[in-house]
Amino acid sequence: MVRNYNYNYKLCPFTCARAVTAPKAIHKLVRATERERDHCEAAAGEINPITIPDTSPYPRPFEMGKDSQASSAMEIDDLKSNSSDQIAPKFSINVLQLLKSAQMQHGLRHGDYTRYRRYCTARLRRLYKSLKFTHGRGKYTRRAITESTVTEVRFLHVVLYTAERAWSHAMEKRQVLDGPNARQRIYLIGRLRKAVKWATLFAQLCAIKGDSRTSLEAEAYASFMKGSLLFEQDQNWDTALMNFKSARAVYEELAKYGDLESQVLCRERVEELEPSIRYCLHKVGESNLQASELLQIGEMEGPALDLFKAKLEAVMAEARSQQAASMTEFHWLGHRFPISNPKTRVSILKGNSENVKDDLNGLDKAVSAVLGQRTIERNQLLVNNAKSKLTKRRDDKNEKATKPEELVRLYDLLLQNTSDLSDLVSSGRDRKPEEVAFTEDCELKSLAFRAERSYSLAGKRVEAYALYCHARSLAETALQKFQAVNNGDQMIIEELKILYDECRSNSCIEHATGIMEELKAPENLSKKISSINLTGVDKKVEKFLLEKLDVYESAVGESNVKSAPRIEAFPPSFQSITRNPIVLDLAYNHIDFPSLQHRMRKDKSGFLSSLF
Fold first, then answer.
1. What whole-number distance in Å separates Cα of residue 22 and Cα of residue 135?
2. CATH code, domain carrying 208
3. pLDDT higher than 60, residue 43
4. 519-557: per-residue pLDDT in tens?
5. Hey, which of 205-219, 406-420, 448-462 has the most confident mean pLDDT?
6. Does residue 225 sit within a domain?
7. Any stretches that span the bilayer, and where are they (predicted)?
């Protein structure tokens, strides 16, 4: 094969030398050579073509392009065949858990729909950017999400959060102080329609692209949105009831499967949907809600109940009007009074509903009071147990001893319990004589506990005696008041009698014990002074093992008693030892000793040393 190029002869060696580099270099070289050829033809006329043998191992540029196109076409055909053979994967979304976590973390825990709407907007912006699914930089260009568009699960998140944004915007308009006016209500219903539109699209896409559980949750979500729209429009109650029941049925079935958290969330959503279903039944005519039931529903929490709570006052007014239509007379202390004015009937029913609310509060208060009494009885049993351990001779070393501080702590708990119980009973507006007597009984018990606490705290006999006397006087006063009442509570009377006797006996005991301690105080003081030890060791000194080798007794101690083993004293104590005597030579400087020069050796000297 021979290539024919019209090259200048000066460029031919360069061309041939550079032709064996790389395919990209060939393209650049050919373009540069053609430009140089055109320049030479314009300057010197026609140039004979030069035939260059095709010795390069690389293909020509145009041939390489054809080969690459053919290979890419083959790869595309292979991909198409592989994709047709494979089954598209199904996406899985735990819709309820995803929405609940987002709602609780971004405002709906406190009913802040504005914050949640802003979160949905920011979340959508991040999803659009990550998916590169923006709608134009300048002018808005709508891009629809269809079945072919959904290539990953985040496209389903886009549709879901768009529906949530529209729904939260509608609920935000619902939370206006005086309620939405006509213009705001139209806007609110429009946002709910948009939420229904996106929720329906989400259900359709999940039915195609999602698994079975995701499809069911999406259907339940769309049904809830449709029911909420009809609930707000106050029309088509049959259709709204059907949608709410459909959502409840799906969540009831989903609550039987999955992990524990998903089951709990599904059960909570079923409980949130129940009031809306009952109200729809009431509007259809298959149920009759009472005012007390409406109050109980109003105390429930959950995002699904916010639309119901917004209409609660209107619903209660409607319920009162229906009850007032059947109310013709008013009963009071055996008298019957006819009522002809409808407004008067509604006012009486409103007062009765407030009485029902007071009855519920009173029931709650009574249950709390009973729990408080049981707590006091339990703490009294603990006090008796601690006293028995404190007064009993502890011959058994295995049993843990009770300290007086434990009694003080228990009496502090009893004082707190009686104070809380007294505050709870005295919190009502209209107090009955039984409640007044119960409050006085709590105060008497509190005084008795204070006396016991002061005695257990540091043995203060004077304060304990004064408190016992005061408690006895109050118990006597309360007992006289109870006995003056014909239908007095016999149990409280018996308790007051026991309390009076205990206060009287304890005051006498404290008085006598205080006098005895005062008389024995000088004697005890002299005993303590006489037993003072300079070493500071007042306990009985036990012998060590080396001192009682003839006695078969363990020096290590028992395993359940924390005591140091008495084998040998360590570190050993100091003992006195003998030392060298001290000699003081006081007369040394005053003694004249004899001379010893004559006994000393004399040094011999030479002739020369004698001359000098």
1. 43
2. 1.10.3450.40
3. no
4. 877 877 777 777 666 555 555 567 788 788 887 777 776
5. 205-219
6. yes
7. none
Amino acid in position 81: S
Q: Identify each DSSP E strand in 316-422 by its residue range.
A: 329-332, 335-338
- Could you give the 3-state DSSP secondary structure of residue 204? helix
Task: For residue 550, tell me if it sits in a domain.
Answer: no
Cα separation, 468 vs 501, in Å, equals 11
Whether residue 151 lies inside any domain: the answer is yes
- C-alpha closest to that of 275 among 299, 254, 252, 256: 299
Q: What is the mean pLDDT of residues 161-169?
A: 92
Is there a single domain that holds both residue 459 and residue 432?
yes
Phi and psi of 132, rounded to 5°?
55, 45
- Could you give the 3-state DSSP secondary structure of residue 293? helix
Q: Express each pLDDT in 249-266 by its tens digit.
A: 888 888 887 788 888 888
Angle formed by the axes of helices 182-209 and 212-233, nearest 10°: 160
The number of domains in the chain is 3
Question: CA-to-CA distance for 225 and 273, rounded, in angstroms?
Answer: 12
Mean pLDDT of 489-500: 73
253 and 295 share one domain = yes
First-to-last alpha carbon distance for the chain, in angstroms, is 135
| Cis previous bond, 180, omega within 30 | no
Q: Are residues 156 and 302 in the same domain?
A: yes
Mind giving me the DSSP string for 240-263? Answer: HHHHHHHHHHHHHHHTTSS-HHHH
- Could you tell me how many residues make up the chain? 612
Place of tokens 């260009």: 141
CB 174 within 8 A of CB 228: no
**Domain boundary at 525, 552, 570, which?**
525
Kindly provide the b/e burial profile for residues 95-104, where b requires at least 16 CB atoms within 10 angstroms of the residue's own CB: bbbebbebbe
Residue-wise pLDDT for 396-436, tens only, equals 545 565 666 777 777 778 878 788 777 777 665 556 666 66
**CA 37 to each of CA 9, 60, 134, 155, 525: distance values in angstroms, whole numbers, following the listed order:** 10, 19, 49, 56, 132
Give the separation between CA 233 and CA 170, rounded to whole angstroms.
13
| 163 and 233, same domain (yes or no) | yes
Q: Which residues pair with 338 in a beta bridge?
A: 329
Q: Residue 549's pLDDT is what?
A: 81
The residue type found at 11 is: L
Lowest-pLDDT range of 5-14, 222-231, 276-285: 5-14
Question: For residues 351 and 291, is the Cβ–Cβ distance under 8 A?
Answer: no
CA distance 235 to 241: 11
Final residue of a structural domain among 474, 494, 525 = 525
Token readout for 143 is: 């891009």
Indicate if the pLDDT at residue 188 is higher than 80.
Answer: yes
Domain that holds residue 383: 378-392+400-525
pLDDT in the model for residue 56 = 43
Q: Which amino acid, one-letter code, is at 301?
A: E
Same domain flag for 154 and 250: yes
Structure tokens at 204: 């359709």
Q: Are residues 129 and 218 in the same domain?
A: yes
Residue type, 83: S
Instruction: Verify that 317 and 173 share a domain, yes or no.
Output: yes
